[in-house]
Amino acid sequence: MSRSLPYTGMMYLTLSSLMLTVIFGAAGTIHRDAEQESAGPSFTGATGWLNSEPLSLARLRGKVILIDFWTYTCINWRRTLPYIREWASKYKDQGLVVIGVHTPEFSFEHSPKNVGKAIQDMNIGYPVAMDNNFDIWRSFQNQFWPALYLIDGSGKLRYQKFGEGDYEKTEFQIQKLLKEASSGNLSSPLVALEPQGFEVAADWDNLQSPENYLSYGRTEGFVSPEKVHVGKQLSFSIPGELKLNQWALAGVWTVGSENARLSKGQGKIIYRFHARDLHLIMGCAAPGTSVKFRVLLCGRPPGSANGLDVDSNGYGTVTEQRMYQLIRQQGAIIDREFEIEFLEPGVEIYDFTFG
C-alpha cells in the first residue's frame, strides 16, 4: 500500500528550536553546485537539511545510496521505518548512505519544526532533505509515499520499491550493490525485527477500510444529511444508520480543501470501519493550544482496544499536528462503529488511516 497524489500547501520556513542541523540558503533553498544542475535525479532544490550538511549525489559517488521518500503522517511509510532505520545503522560502515527525502502532503508538514520533532520522536539519525517544493520528488519522477531508490557506486539507479513490504528483497539489493562497490565479500544475515507501536505491520487479512481524507472534494462515504459548502461554517448531524466505510459529523464544522475544523462548541465524528487499527491525522487550528477528546467503540469505552494516544476509557488530547492512533483491537476483527467526541472547538481533522 502507498499514498500518491500529494497535497501541495503553503510553505512554512520557521526554524526548529530542536537540537538538529537545519540549513537554509537564500529564499529557503540550498545553493546548487554545477554537478547538481544536470538533468535527472538530484537533491537540487532541497529547502533544508536535517541531521546533515547539504549533500549531493555527485559528492557521494562511490557510496551506495538508499533514498527514502516520506512524509511524517503517512502510516504506510511509518510501517517501513524500522527497516530503513536498521539498514542505515547496520550498513553504515560498509558504504551505505541512507537519505530521507521529506516531501510534505499537508501544509503543516512544510514546517521544519514539525518535521524535526517527528525525526526526534521516531529516532531518525540519518540525513533528511526537506523537499517542500517537490523539486527532488520531480527529479526522480516519483509519485508515492513511501518510495525507495537505490543508487550504486557509479551513480546509476539500480532498484526502486514503492509501498510497503519486500524487505528481504530490498536488503538483498543493498548487499548486492555494497559487494559491487567494495569488490569484496559481504556476508551478513538479514535484519530480523519485531516492530512496535505505530510501526507494527498492518493486519492485511482483516483490513477492509481504505484510507479516507476528510476534506472537501477528496472524502468518500460522507453521509451527514446536510449539504457541504466548502469553507462555510455549518451544523451537521448523524444519520440513523451507517454502513461499512461511511462516516458523519455532528456539531458545527467548517469543511475546507485540506481539513474539517470544529468551529463551535463540542462536536463528534462517527465512522463504521473494519480493521485492527484506526488512526486519525489531526491538530489544533491555533498554535500552542490543545483539545481534549473521548473515543468510543460501539458505544463503549475501548478498554484493551485503546490505541497509543488514548487511555482505556477512551480519553486523549490533541496537542500537535500528527497522526494519532486511537484504536488497536486485540480480538476478532468485525465491522465496528467508532466515535470520537471533541470536548471543545479548534480541532482540525485531515485523514483516517487503518491497519
Please render the helix and strand layout as text.
Blueprint: E1 3-4, E2 48-50, E3 64-70, H1 75-78, H2 81-90, E4 96-102, H3 112-121, E5 128-130, H4 135-139, E6 144-145, E7 147-151, E8 157-162, H5 167-182, E9 212-213, E10 233-236, E11 247-255, E12 260-273, E13 277-284, E14 291-297, E15 315-318, E16 322-328, E17 336-342, E18 347-354
Parallel strand pairs: 3-4, 4-5
Antiparallel strand pairs: 1-6, 2-5, 3-7, 7-8, 9-18, 10-11, 11-12, 12-17, 12-18, 13-16, 13-18, 14-15, 14-17
Describe the overall structure:
The chain is an alpha+beta fold and 355 residues long. Residues 5-38 have low confidence and may be disordered. The radius of gyration is 21 Å and the shape is elongated. The protein is built from five helices and 18 strands. The strands form three sheets. Strands 9, 10, 11, 12, 13, 14, 15, 16, 17 and 18 form a ten-stranded antiparallel sheet that branches. A six-stranded mixed sheet has the order 2-5-4-3-7-8, with helices on one face. It has helices at residues 75-78, 81-90, 112-121, 135-139, 167-182; strands spanning 3-4, 48-50, 64-70, 96-102, 128-130, 144-145, 147-151, 157-162, 212-213, 233-236, 247-255, 260-273, 277-284, 291-297, 315-318, 322-328, 336-342, 347-354. Helix content is 13%, strand content 30%. β4, α3 and β5 form a beta-alpha-beta unit. The chain has two domains: 3-199, Glutaredoxin (3-Layer(aba) Sandwich); 204-354, Galactose-binding domain-like (Jelly Rolls).
